[in-house]
Design a protein that fits this description.
heterodimer; A: alpha/beta; Rossmann fold; two-stranded antiparallel ribbon; 43% helix; B: alpha/beta; 7-stranded mixed sheet; 35% helix
């Protein structure tokens, strides 16, 4: 697929999202290492292009069900940074009042409906949002993201079958980063690819280079167009690579060093940046100035989070049910 | 004094729990365009459900709102949760309670927790209807009472009816509740005529409110579902022996009506807690513990519990009969409390 298949303005916009997503991950790791925020963190570094493209194409009313390694998906969909960081810090000003944390971030105004910590569980719920879209006679689409590890859990298969027999506007976005927790994709996934499984559910299954903006853009646009037109679900297998271990800080010796260093040398975000400059889509000064703005936004969000109040123990009584319950 | 002692017995009752549930569906779907339902076999081409509760519904309200599903409990529950997040009011049928085990992740990790984990930004107003109960010789995987698992889960309410009026009123109230509710229905008592008239469309049973189904002064029986039917029979039989039994049907198992239970326990001083579910670690243990915490020293006897045996539900009839208390077993447990 030719890389010039998308226009320059779109490519620049994709880069801006990717740069923000990348910078946010870098800051998260820094903040954890500095001890300012203690959290279990699943770095998505290396997977930025996929959600940047999705965010470029999706509307606010399109819904997203994502997973614990999903902050990149959420920023791509427009999660505001202050509410995000305050939630990571467990503060009352977080989007979930500190009750959800990094694995359960939620922000309905941008369609970010569910973040699950259970592998594969984004998919069955996404079908319900898709069913509701059709009941509403809306052309909005329902996205679920998951990893290659989730392709082997039953919930995904139940959901793909239901989406197909009900012809739902669900888009199954598998981000194949080649590792399911600590285990390699080849070792535990039969058949060599995930996209091929779509054939068994009579839906299109497409494997794309998720790190290539143009390829990703074309494949995702096509899936969205199909869903909006009422033509049913699509399974996209977006090939990518996770630069760090399953959990940030784990012993990632299970990741072959050569594979990791090759992937990091091909880092898709700086690659896109270099291309924007080489193709004269943006200048070094323009990008540097944008990147400085991003850092300032993140500075502001982190400061807001750290200055925000903690929840009170009494907050446990609220949001269990709509009405308060006895402690 | 029995609450029904003065009721005229001019004719035999004709209304079943089944008919009451079917009417509840009709009324809900007529009144609320946001009502949708899904489950195995429940649309008309598949027969309107194994108990025919939803028969006619898909023809009348359309097959987009009334959907048969694959045998995929996780997909069923997930679709219900997702649709509820977008403002619909799904009633999801998980045919038999044992099949909820296949969908536990969706129910326990998602339906029950999304409101809290999102800090109240989202909610999951769904009803899960499920049938169960021993009596059909279906053995160990088709008739368990698993209410304690759900009662132990913050964020989901658990109900069970033992009369047609309550079945109707609980389904209507569960449907209108802003949070997930699991409604446990007793399959073997579905078909028994118990009432004279179907409830009218305005009838509701508020969640969290127990019913005193027999008033009495000697012993309180706290119970629900099929065991409330047995407890009423035991109370009626013991009235002939001069024993006055108060039957409290919880109707909502979680959150349960502590006020009504404690008032009755205070009055009689003797409490039997009865359920069909396995006695050990069951709902009865929670109720007994709270009565003890609140009324220690005011009771005439320690709270007594009866329930299902600590085994899988057996197949063979004599074993199945011995598995959970019938009215006779309840009557002797009540007599024990008076010794």
């Amino acid at each position: 697929m030719p890389s010039n298949a998308i226009d320059n303005a779109t490519l620049l916009s994709i880069y801006k999202r990717a740069a923000l997503i990348k910078a946010n991950d870098e800051r998260a790791r820094k903040v954890i290492l500095s001890g300012q925020i203690a959290m279990v963190y699943y770095s998505y570094r290396g997977q930025e292009i996929i959600p940047s493209v999705m965010g470029e194409i999706l509307r606010d009313d399109d819904t997203l069900c994502t997973i614990y390694r999903g902050i990149h998906d959420m920023i791509g969909k427009g999660f505001p940074l202050r509410e995000l960081w305050a939630e990571l810090a467990g503060r009352r000003t977080g989007s979930c009042k500190g009750k959800g944390g990094p694995m359960h971030l939620t922000y309905p105004p941008r369609g970010i409906m569910v973040t699950t910590g259970i592998v594969g569980s984004s998919a069955p719920i996404a079908n319900g949002l898709a069913w509701a879209a059709r009941l509403d006679q809306s052309d909005r689409v329902s996205i679920c993201t998951f990893g290659d590890g989730a392709s082997n859990i039953g919930a995904i298969h139940e959901a793909m079958n239901l989406a197909s027999v009900w012809k739902l506007p669900t888009i199954f976005v598998c981000q194949n980063n080649l590792f399911a927790e600590h285990t390699t994709f080849e070792k535990m996934t039969a058949g060599g690819n995930i996209a091929g499984r779509a054939a068994g559910y009579a839906m299109p299954g497409v494997r794309v280079n998720g790190n290539d903006p143009a390829e990703m853009y074309l494949a995702f646009s096509e899936a969205v167009a199909r869903a909006r037109a009422g033509e049913g679900p699509t399974l996209l297998e977006c090939m990518t690579f996770r630069f760090f271990g399953h959990t940030f800080g784990d012993d990632d010796s299970y990741m072959p060093k050569e594979q990791k260093s090759a992937a990091m040398a091909a880092d898709p975000v700086p690659a896109l940046r270099a291309r924007l400059i080489a193709d004269r889509i943006a200048t070094e000064d323009e990008l540097a100035s944008f990147e400085a703005e991003i850092e300032a936004q993140i500075d502001d969000a982190v400061a807001f989070a750290l200055e925000s109040p903690w929840p009170e123990p009494d907050d446990l009584r609220f949001d269990v049910f709509e009405k308060e319950i006895a402690a | 004094m029995s609450a029904t002692a003065t009721a005229p017995v001019a004719k035999k009752p004709t209304v079943t729990i089944l008919a009451a549930l079917a009417k509840a569906y009709q009324d809900i779907f007529s009144e609320d365009p946001k009502a949708i339902t899904l489950g195995e076999d429940l649309a008309d081409p598949e027969g309107g459900g194994i108990a025919k509760i939803t028969k006619g519904l898909s023809t009348k309200f359309g097959d987009e709102r009334v959907r048969s599903t694959p045998i995929s409990e996780q997909a069923i529950m997930g679709a219900a949760i997702g649709a509820s997040l977008a403002g619909y009011r799904p009633i999801a049928e998980i045919m038999l309670m044992n099949f909820t085990t296949v969908a536990m992740d969706m129910i326990v990790n998602h339906a029950a927790k999304l409101r809290f984990m999102s800090g109240g930004q989202t909610s999951v107003p769904i009803v899960i209807r499920t049938m169960t109960g021993l009596g059909f010789g279906s053995g160990g995987q088709h008739c368990d009472y698993l209410e304690a698992w759900f009662a132990h889960t913050p964020g989901i309410k658990v109900c069970a009816a033992s009369t047609p009026e309550d079945a109707y009123g609980l389904l209507r109230a569960a449907y209108e509740d802003p949070d997930p509710v699991i409604l446990i229905e007793n399959l073997p008592t579905y078909f028994a005529p118990m009432s004279f008239e179907l409830p009218d469309a305005g009838h509701r049973v508020p969640l969290g409110k127990a019913a005193i189904q027999r008033e009495g002064t000697d012993v309180t029986v706290v119970t629900y579902a099929r065991m409330a039917v047995n407890a009423r029979a035991a109370a009626d039989a013991l009235a002939g022996e001069g024993i006055s039994v108060e039957v409290v049907d919880l109707r909502t198992i979680a959150p349960w009506d502590r006020e009504t239970v404690l008032a009755s326990a205070r009055k009689t001083g003797r409490v039997l807690v009865a359920h069909e579910a396995v006695k050990q670690h069951g709902v009865g243990a929670e109720i007994a513990a709270v009565i003890n915490e609140e009324l220690f020293g005011q009771l005439k006897k320690p709270v007594k519990r009866v329930g299902g045996a600590f085994s899988a539900v057996p197949y063979s009839k004599p074993l199945e009969n011995a598995y959970a208390p019938d009215a006779d077993v309840l009557a002797s447990a009540i007599r024990d409390l008076l010794r």
